[in-house]
Structure formats: C-alpha cells, structure tokens
Amino acid sequence: MALSSKVRRILLLENSFLRRRLLTKKKKRIGVHEMNKKRSVLGEFHHVYEELRLDRERFFKFLRMSIETFDFLLSKVQFKLTKQVTNFKKPIFAAERLYVTLR
C-alpha cells in the first residue's frame, strides 16, 4: 500500500521529533569563511613577515628569535605542519603556522 505524499507529510508532522526536524531550517554550511578566503590579501602574515625578514633586529623583537633559529625550527617541524593542497581549500602553509604559534 503506497501512501500519498500528503498522507506521509501528515503522519510525519504528528510525530513531534520529526516535525521539529522538518520545520527547522538547516544553516548553510560554509567550507571556508569569506574572511579566511581573503587571508592572503588582508592577513598580517602576508604583510609583515617579508618585511621582518629584511630587518634582523625587528624580526628578533617580533618573534623573540633570530631568522636562522626560525628557519632551523621550521625545517624541523615543517613536515608535521604542512597540509595537503586541494581543489576546495588552500591550506595555511607551515611558515605561517609556525609564525602564528610563536607570536
């Protein structure tokens, strides 16, 4: 015995649990927030990091370590911090992850 769509809907709406699930709208899921998509244009790392590497003293004051120490530390942990690049998302690269962690 096949039920019509109207009858199925009435039966579903009588069940309070199913009614809540049917009547509540699901929020649209966003893979990457709009603000994070603009990270490479507006983010601190992309503006400050290259300038800091040009001035050893400012780099030391900002990250509390020399450029050589930062590079050594990055070489040791880069494998663990590196994420795979996919068609859907651009990952945060290892240097930026370390920079944010130390800052």
Describe the structure.
The chain is mostly helical and 103 residues long. The protein has helices spanning 5-14, 16-23, 34-37, 39-42, 44-54, 56-63, 67-81, 94-102. It has 8 helices and no strands. Helix 5 (44-54) packs across helix 6 (56-63) and helix 7 crosses helix 8 (94-102). The chain is rod-shaped and about 75 Å long.
What features would you highlight for this structure?
67% helix; mainly alpha; single chain; 103 residues; rod-shaped
List the helices and strands and how they pair.
Layout: H1 5-14, H2 16-23, H3 34-37, H4 39-42, H5 44-54, H6 56-63, H7 67-81, H8 94-102
The residue ranges in which pLDDT falls below 50 over 5 or more consecutive positions are none
Judging from the principal axes of the Cα atoms, what is the shape?
rod-shaped
Mean pLDDT: 82
What is the gyration radius calculated from CA atoms?
25 Å
In whole angstroms, how far apart are the ends? 67 Å
Task: Count the beta strands.
Answer: 0
In short:
This protein is mainly α and 103 residues long.
